[in-house]
Each structure stands twice: as structure tokens, then as C-alpha cells.
Amino acid sequence: MPKDCTNSSERDMLASAGKAAPAKTMTRRAASGTLTEMWMKKPSTSSKRAAVPEGKAVTMKSSDAANPEEGSPAPSEVSTSKSSSSKQAEVIARAILDTLEDDTMGESWKIALALEFQKPYFLKLKKFLLAEHMSHTIYPSTNNIYSWSKLTPLDQVKVVVLGQDPYHDVNQAHGLSFSVLMPTKPPPSLKNIYKQLETDIPGFKAPMTGDLSAIARQGVLWLNTSLTVRAHKAGSHSRQGWEIFTAQAIRAILQRKGNDQPGVVFMAWGLPAQKTFNSIGVDEKKHLLLKSAHPSPLSAHRGFLGNGHFKQANEWLAKKYGKGAEIDWTVISAK
Prior knowledge:
Elements: H1 8-15, H2 35-40, H3 62-66, H4 75-98, H5 100-104, H6 107-112, H7 120-135, E1 138-139, H8 147-151, E2 159-163, H9 188-200, H10 213-216, E3 220-224, E4 229-230, H11 242-255, E5 265-269, H12 271-280, E6 288-292, H13 309-321
Helix pairs in contact: 1-4, 4-7
Active site: 165 (proton acceptor)
Subcellular location: Mitochondrion; Nucleus
Region (Disordered): 1-85
């Protein structure tokens, strides 16, 4: 059987697979069929019962096979039950991933990125995620992979803070770069971000927790280039397709409403973020591109601390958008 998924709702759905026929499945159809149909090359998951795959029988003692206890299932029944339960769990996991964008992505981003969902790289990415979910714990939970898209709608983005991949420990990642779930204490990189905020923003006092959602709601897009990770294995989902997808999300910001948008502040901390923005082609005549070292303890003292990025961002926003358009970074301050 697969290991636990990343949250209780997913575990409940997978656990129920062996108890009843699969629940009604909503699928997003493309010209060539749903993702589930493409992967399985058989009827979609809305069928009443999943087919039982061939598999090895459960090993049992010969005495047990010859003299099974009264009321206990025969070895063949045990094998069929286990394989059927595992198969149904996989069908449900496929269905969750199949409708993930429809169910969890913010509407403005879903419209802007719709063409990506049927591209070969994205279908391959989904297949990879299915295999990972069936054998490992993945962060963040599926309902939080696209939380950035709901907290910061496309037309409201004023600042982009680009990270690399999600935190990979328990109760940390929830879909925003550098941010962690309540009541988790701020990781080292976020502590350094808080230090710079205390320097740049009058009245900011570093909080004891690390949830940045309140800042995201003001138009700060906390985006990782890779949106998922295997538990306790940093970078494990890099170069699987997420980087292509998130680069397109950044392009969607650059392309919105033609030249009517005042521009965006892009914070490029560390060489990977800088390379990403350079490859996409951020027009520095229209946008503010702020570069420095990464806030990690390994590099923060080599250019991140003292970079003045939050102060510069607010000054630029006030100039471009008008007074009052600045980000209230103090909204997360310790009380």
C-alpha cells in the first residue's frame, strides 16, 4: 500500500478506496481526453469499479493455506483484496491530480495558464507526481500547491519574490515561497528576511511564526520555481517540468493588459532566481528588478542583509502606482 499522503483529507480519500466503489470523479477533458484516460489508455475513472491488476499473491504459510481459519479469506481472496485496494487508491490519486487545477487554482491564473495544462511537459509532470504520491510523502499538500494563485490573483500582482522549491519538512510548506504554516517558527532564510524588513520598514517587528499569507493578499506573489518536493529531500522535484510552468506564470505577469500595467517589482535573491528572470527577459525599463545574494545563512551576509529591497520596492510602487500603493509589510509584525 502507498505511504501516507500529505494531509488528512488525502489519507481519508485513499483509505476509503478499499471500502467502497470509487467516488464520483470530476475530470477536465481535453481534445485527446482526460489526463487519467491518457495515462491509463482505458475508460475514465468514472467507471463503477476499477479493474484488478495482476499481481503477486500474498505469501502465506502452507499450513494456513491448507487449513484456513473459519471465516478467514482464502489466500487468493487476500491477494485480490490487496491489489484491488491498491488499484483503487491509485485511481483516486489520479483523479485528484487530474482535476487539481480546476479544483484548487485561482480563476485568473487558471485562465492565463490554461494552455499549459495539456502540453506534453505538463502531462509528464503529472505522471511523475502520481508516482511520487503513491510511494512517498509530498509537500505541500495537494490543496496548497497552488495557494499562491488564490492569495495573489494575476491582476493584483505588484511584487514577485522568487524562491526555488518548497520546504521539505512536516508542517512547513503551504504553497508560498519562504512561508511556513502556523505555528511553525520561521526557518533561517525567513529569519533573515525579517531582519531586512526590520531595517527597511519602520515599525516592523519580526514575528515568531512564518505565515506570509497576509502579505500575499496585498499583491506580493511568493512563488517557487518548483511547486512540490519529496519529504526530507530538497530539490527532488526539480527539472521535472515545474520550472517551465512557473516561468510561464511569470510571463503571464509581464504580458497582462499590454502596456497598461505600471509594472512589477521582481526580487531576485540568489543566482538561480536571477538566471530565471534573465532567461524570461524582464524589461527593466518598465519593471524594477532587484538582485542580491540569497537570504540563506550561507549567503545572507554576502549581500542580502543590507540590500534595502523592501524600502526600494515601496518607494518604486508609490512612484508608479501612486501614494498608498505601498505594501504594508508590518501586517505580519509581532504585536
